[in-house]
Amino acid sequence: MNRLLQGVVGRLVRTGNLQITDPDGIVAVFGDGSGPPVHVRLRTHHAQRAITFDPMLALPEAYMNGEIDIVEGDVLDLLRVVYQNMGPTGIEAAWTKALESARVVFRRLQQVNTAARSRRNVQHHYDLSREFYRLFLDEDMQYSCAYFERPDMTLEAAQLAKKRHLAAKLNLKPGQQVLDIGSGWGGLGLYLARTFDVDVLGVTLSTEQHAVATDRAHEEGLQSHAHFEIRDYRDLQERFDRIVSVGMFEHVGVNHYHAFFERCAALLKPDGVMVLHAIGRAGPPTATNAFIRKHIFPGGYIPALSEVLPHIERAGLMVTDIEILRLHYAETLKHWRERFLANRDKVVEIYDERFARMWEFYLAGSESAFRWQDLMVFQIQLSLKNDVLPLTRDYIGKCEKAIALHEIGHMADRVRKPSRKVRDRN
C-alpha cells in the first residue's frame, strides 16, 4: 500500500478491526482489534491512488466498478469502522478537507435546478423500473423515512405510522383541498383521500411515479378524490387548505429555497396548514456527498435548519412546530438494505452487477450517515396565521389514536366488501 494512504488510514482508524490487502498482495492491519473484522482487497493501483486523494467519491466508485472487494464483512461494516472513528464532525486529511471545502464553494453551481433540469434530475432516479423499487420498499411503496413508534415494528407498520403522523399534523377536515408536492407513487395522497374524505392533488416530475399513482387511484376507485399530475410546483396557481411535501425538498436546491417557500405561501389559503418532511443535517451547512451527487441524486442537497428557516420567515410563513426524527431513517434504510440484498439477484437481472453494487453502497452509506454522522429528518409545520391549530401538541397524539381506530374499522370494511378490482373479476 502506498505510504500516503497507509498514513491516512493509520491516523484515522484507531479502533476497530480493519485489514486492507493492496494490489500487490501486501496486507496492512488497522485499529485495536475490537469489533467484527473487516477485510478489504484493493484490486487495482488505480483504485488505490484514487481513494488516497478523494475517498468520498473514489471508494464507492471503486466498489461499483469491481476494483475493490470486501472479502470479510460488508459495506456497512466498513463504513461503521470509518465513521465511528471520524465521529459526527469528521476527521479528514488536509487535502480531503480542502477538496470538500471547494465543493462547498461550488455547491450553488451544482444546484441550479431550473424546471427542465429538475425534471432530468428526477427522471435519473425515480424513473427507474417500478419492479426494481418493489424489491425493497414496503407494500405501499413509501420511499421516505418511516416512523418507528416501537423498535420492533415492521417496515409496513412504520410507514403506515408515518402517514398517520403526518395526517395528524395536517389536522385535516372532510372536504378540504390538499396538495401533495412530490407525490411519489401516490401512497400518501391515496391514504389521505381514503381516510379523511379530502380531495388530493399530487404533483411529481417522474413519469413512472405518475403512471403508478394514477393506476392505483383507479384501482381503488379514488380517481375522483385523488388526482396526480406531472407538474412543477412553480407552475401551480390554485390555493389549498393543506399542503404536504415528503422527501421532495431535498431536490429543490439551496438556490431555490426562497422561491419554494414563496410559492407555498401563495398556494396556501389564509387558514391553511403545511407540513414539510425532509432530510436535514444536525451540523452546519456543507456540500452534497460527491458520490450521491454524481450517481444517485444529481442536483440534490441536504440542508441544515439554519439554511431553511430564514427563507420560511421571509416568505411570511409561521413555524408552528418542528420535530426532529433522529434514528428513524437509519432503521428504515436497514429494512430497505436487507430486502435489497435478499433480492440482489433480481436487481442484477433488471439492470446489471455495477448497478447493484452502486445501490448496495448507496443504501449502506445512507444508513451509516444517519447512524454515525449528522443526518436526521425534520418535520416543519407551517401556517400563515397563529390561530389555525390547537394551542398544545396534545392534539397530534390524540388524532393519531383516532386515525388508528378508523384504520381498523376501514380494514374490517374491506374484508367484508371486496375492492372494485376484485368485484370486476367476479
Q: In the CATH classification, which architecture of the largest domain applies?
A: 3-Layer(aba) Sandwich
CATH topology of the largest domain: Rossmann fold
Question: Regarding quaternary structure, how should these chains be classified?
Answer: single chain
Uncertain segments of ≥5 residues (pLDDT<50)?
89-96, 419-426
Helix content: 40-55%
Summarize the SSE layout with pairings.
Elements (H helix, E strand, L loop, with lengths): L2 H10 L5 E4 L5 E4 L7 E5 L2 H9 L1 H10 L3 E5 L2 H12 L7 H12 L1 H4 L4 H12 L3 H4 L21 H16 L6 E5 L5 H10 L2 E6 L2 H13 L6 E5 L9 E7 L10 H11 E14 L8 H7 L8 H10 L3 E8 L2 H15 L1 H7 L2 H20 L2 E9 L10 H23 L3 H6 L1
Parallel strand pairs: 1-3, 5-6, 5-8, 6-7, 8-9
Antiparallel strand pairs: 1-2, 3-4, 9-11, 10-11
Helix pairs in contact: 2-3, 3-17, 4-17, 9-18, 12-14, 15-17
Descriptive report:
With 426 residues, the chain is an alpha/beta fold. The protein folds into two domains: 3-105, 2-Layer Sandwich (Nonspecific Lipid-transfer Protein, Chain A); 115-425, Rossmann fold, CATH 3.40.50. It is 50% helix and 17% strand. The strands form two sheets. The protein has a seven-stranded mixed sheet with strand order 7-6-5-8-9-11-10, with helices on both faces. Strands 2-1-3-4 form a four-stranded mixed sheet. A hairpin with a 5-residue loop joins β1 (18-21) and β2. Residues 89-96 and 419-426 have low confidence and may be disordered.
